[in-house]
Design goal:
alpha/beta; 9-stranded mixed β-sheet; 26 strands; 18% strand; disordered C terminus
Length: 570
């Protein structure tokens, strides 16, 4: 047993009570209370010096795996501020590459938001095929669109040739090819992104790009999970686009290389297979799923539409796409098709996640779920809706009546804000983008999440201020306003409920798994703008060991410090 004293313990229990001390044994909290109460217990003592302790953060839409794969891109262009520097770095790789080998660097700009492009480059323009051809004439080059903003992809002549893109290739739905004054493609192409994966041109590009090896993927995922711990994240939900990586996660688990807890789903391959047959192939995700408290695969996810800022959200009113053209977006499923998928999920005892963005896509989801709910009540299933950025208050009430739980991203105003929501949506729709207040007031357990961008403490600040990252303007409205306690719940106890692990994680209470973080300040009382700068001093995951990743309670828990190093406390 290890006894922790002299702390500001934000338990996030049902009363959001504050304690002074707690004790951990066999990887679980065994006591929580005052210093005098807990000090009576036997065991090594850790004096936390008044620091604030919270349950470990739970990122309910982490995309850690995708971030790990992005980190494999070579060369890394992050932070380069000129076309000349970008070309030089790509040229250095091309100089030693085998002729014909693809060069796929990271996206241009500073992740995760990629603000100020291309005007932020010294030349105030994107690189072109001409720039890339000068240093990589014999290797196809693809500079990808970043996942968080619809910047163009950049291809050189070799890549354009392999894709069959010429002066005669027309623009296609979702794809725009920039051309020079003579009509030749410049290599700057908008829309070559996975959100348009059904487009033949996008499909061909993805089929040509080199695959990563299992070993490289697993090393990258292991590193990314370790980084999660440094940010205070002890559990993640890989509930979107995770299907190809379930074997990697299981191999990492078998090798004891999962640094934090993972709950994952399979993604329904809509339009590519017979769904009824496919569901039989993922029986391991039925019921409570398979695995343990460190890795569990449970349920399936279906995506109805794509992000609004990429022009893919199905909205009831026209809005401007990235090129300023009005449209309503699109959906990959009708209400009837989604209802049939939901029926199949019921029959297969699969927990269904439905991801939607636009209000019209949300209506498809809500109506489909209501259809099935009338046939087989869904209240006890705790199915999940993800994102639902443009949901209406009426739709939330209808979801609440079915016992649906929600995962939302309150940080969207920072990354998209004025440029997407204020300038491109009609009327006052920006005022209720991701309306967390509405969800909470409806009594829906609501998990907050990163969507792969920024750490939890940043997102707590973003959820409270709803600040636009480009202009600094606050987009906070009554539909978005929440308290600090509600924001913390969204990253801990409510997130655990949404993931289906609320009986074991999410709060500091006796009997629960002892995952917790120690912060350098009290985020309940510090100025709100200091929350984004708060530091995770240590992260404790029950039973972690610096080398073997496992530790017996008798020698005390171990922690991960700010730079990802693992140290013992006590």
């Amino acid at each position: 047993m290890t006894v922790y004293l002299n702390a500001n313990v934000v338990t996030v229990d049902g009363d959001f009570s504050i304690a002074e001390a707690f004790a951990v044994s066999d990887g679980r909290f065994v006591a929580v209370g005052t210093n005098d109460e807990v000090a009576q217990l036997d065991g090594p003592v850790v004096d936390l010096g008044g620091r604030t302790v919270l349950p470990g953060f739970i990122d309910a839409h982490a995309h850690t795996v995708h971030l790990a794969l992005d980190a494999l891109a070579a060369p890394n262009l992050a932070g380069l501020t000129s076309v000349a520097a970008i070309v030089e770095r790509i040229g250095a790789v091309a100089a030693t590459a085998e002729p014909g080998a693809w060069i796929v660097p990271s996206s241009i700009g500073a992740p995760p938001d990629y603000f100020g492009l291309p005007e932020g480059l010294a030349e105030a323009r994107w690189p072109t095929r001409t720039d890339l051809d000068a240093v990589a004439p014999d290797n196809p080059v693809h500079i990808p669109t970043p996942p968080f903003w619809p910047h163009p992809a950049i291809l050189n002549s070799k890549a354009l040739e392999l894709l069959g893109i010429t002066r005669d290739t027309p623009d296609q739905p979702g794809i725009r090819i920039e051309r020079d004054t003579s009509g030749e493609p410049t290599g700057v192409i908008h829309g070559l992104v996975f959100y348009n994966a059904r487009n033949p041109l996008v499909g061909r590009l993805f089929s040509l790009l080199p695959a990563t090896t299992p070993a490289a993927r697993q090393d990258a995922i292991a590193t990314a999970l370790q980084r999660n711990l440094a940010r205070g994240i002890t559990t993640i939900y890989e509930g979107h686009g995770n299907s190809p990586f379930v074997p990697d996660l299981r191999e990492l688990q078998a090798a004891d290389r999962l640094a934090c807890r993972v709950v994952g789903t399979y993604e329904v391959p809509v339009g590519r297979v017979d769904v009824a047959d496919w569901l039989t192939s993922v029986a391991d995700a039925s019921g409570d799923g398979t695995g343990d408290d460190h890795l569990r695969i449970r349920g399936v996810t279906v995506s109805v539409d794509a992000p609004m800022h990429f022009g893919g959200a199905l909205m009831s009113e026209p809005y401007a796409d990235p090129h300023g053209e009005l449209g309503n977006g699109s959906s990959v499923l009708s209400t009837a098709e989604l209802a049939e998928l939901a029926r199949l999920a019921v029959r297969s005892d699969l927990r269904l996640n439905v991801l939607a963005t636009g209000d019209a896509a949300c209506e498809i989801a809500v109506s489909a779920l209501e259809t099935v709910h009338r046939e087989t009540p869904l209240n006890s299933r705790s199915w999940i809706v993800q994102h639902f950025h443009h949901v209406t208050r009426d739709q939330i009430a209808r979801l609440a009546a079915m016992g649906i739980v929600a995962q939302v991203c309150a940080g969207v105003d920072f990354g998209r804000g004025v440029a997407a929501y204020v300038e491109r949506l009609p009327g006052d729709q920006w005022e209720h983008v991701t309306p967390v207040r509405w969800w909470i007031d409806a009594g829906v357990p609501t998990a907050l999440a990163s969507d792969g961008a920024h750490p939890p403490l940043f997102h707590l600040w973003a959820a409270l201020t709803r600040t636009d990252g480009r202009s600094g303007r606050s987009l906070l409205t009554p539909a978005k306003a929440i308290s600090r306690a509600e924001a913390i719940r969204g990253w801990t106890a409510d997130a655990a409920t949404v993931l289906g692990v609320g009986d074991r994680l999410g709060s500091i209470e006796p009997g629960k798994l002892a995952d917790f973080v120690v912060l350098d300040r009290d985020i309940l009382t510090c100025p709100v703008d200091e929350i984004r700068d708060a530091t995770v001093v240590t992260t404790v995951l029950a039973g972690r060991d610096p080398d073997a990743h496992r530790v017996e309670a008798s020698v005390g828990p171990c922690v991960v410090g700010d730079e990802g190093q693992v140290d013992r406390v006590g």
